[in-house]
Amino acid sequence: xxxxxxxxxxxxxxxxxxxxxxxxxxxxxxxxxxxxxxxxxxxxxxxxxxxxxxxxxxxxxxxxxxxxxxxxxxxxxxxxxxxxxxxxxxxxxxxxxxxxxxxxxxxxxxxxxxxxxxxxxxxxxxxxxxxxxxxxxxxxxxxxxxxxxxxxxxxxxxxxxxxxxxxxxxxxxxxxxxxxxxxxxxxxxxxxxxxxxxxxxxxxxxxxxxxxxxxxxxxxxxxxxxxxxxxxxxxxxxxxxxxxxxxxxxxxxxxxxxxxxxxxxxxxxxxxxxxxxxxxxxxxxxxxxxxxxxxxxxxxxxxxxxxxxxxxxxxxxxxxxxxxxxxxxxxxxxxxxxxxxxxxxxxxxxxxxxxxxxxxxxxxxxxxxxxxxxxxxxxxxxxxxxxxxxxxxxxxxxxxxxxxxxxxx
Length: 409
Ligand SMILES: *Cc1c(COP(=O)(O)O)cnc(C)c1O
What we know:
The protein is α/β, with parallel strands linked by helices and 409 residues long. It has 14 helices and 13 strands. The chain folds into two domains: 31-55 and 298-402, Aspartate Aminotransferase, domain 1 (Alpha-Beta Complex), CATH 3.90.1150; 58-294, 3-Layer(aba) Sandwich (Aspartate Aminotransferase, domain 2), CATH 3.40.640.10. Helices cover 40% and strands 14% of the residues. β5, α7 and β6 (210-214) form a beta-alpha-beta unit. α2 (58-69) packs antiparallel against α10 and α4 packs parallel to α5 (138-146). Keywords: Aminotransferase, Pyridoxal phosphate, Transferase. This is Aminotransferase. Residues 1-25 are annotated as: Disordered.
């Protein structure tokens, strides 16, 4: 039914999308949100997204509560609360012998995510190239695209993820502005060795590139592997920004307290971007994380041993279910090839896994531009930052569904 007296609707101009729309994930949702939603819908056990399902140390939680009670509820200083700046500097010295000034060499951020975004926006101009290792943590690609940069990928190939020196050399050019490293690495669990860091350092120095080293799993390198900050590689302190976060170490991923440390001039450049993204955040939570960083060494050792045990549990279970699982050297995740089950597309398999077996995992191909280059097409990522009872239950479901006897009966 038309009403001729009603004026024709004004055609509003199409919303501006622009090149930035290109980096929005399909459907406006990341794979992690999508798979977590699928877990909730199907009642599947969620070994997809990497968040712990138990609270961190009581001392950390109590310090944040106390800070609220004590009135630490307004904007913190732009660089971060003094107590946290000092705790971060002391932590870098205590664990790694790195000299970090709490006055000039530290910036507290909204998780490692904002530290990464600010640093990439600070150092990447349109057309600049960024060397990244693939599979790559998902926010890196979005940040680089937003800065107008170009990714040059170095594949870490399943199942040993060794550094391919030829591919590394080929990824550098006169346009290289930045190298983006992650150790211990998500999702492969690789801990870069001192020799590998030295090789990367040589190229970074020759091309005068800044190195951003994402070390959010610094306390989760499993024995005998040891985490070594990239900044402790000879010649690298002056060109390296180290990023970490309290989320993974203290099981407080929802707090989003991260930080960046490095030479004063590089940190100042990151701070100049960060100040107009969020300025500052999480005053009382900063006190909580400061308390965490000051916990005795035994806390970190126990955490590391517990996570190593859970990873071994999951690797063993996946193996019994018929997956080709690789023991990680650190982090929160196990990668497992599903090719032995006769599946060649892990992305398709991941979508039916929740209903078929009652478990959620993430296809490793989502971390890749070219999944074949790193052998990730048939690989799934499982998180073990979950309670042992949850891991046990997930294994039971997977063994029942895919284990040898399940397949031969
Ligand atoms: C979890 C994670 C981050 C994000 O850390 P937040 O502190 O939660 O922002 C960054 N990098 C890697 C490799 C991660 O796994």
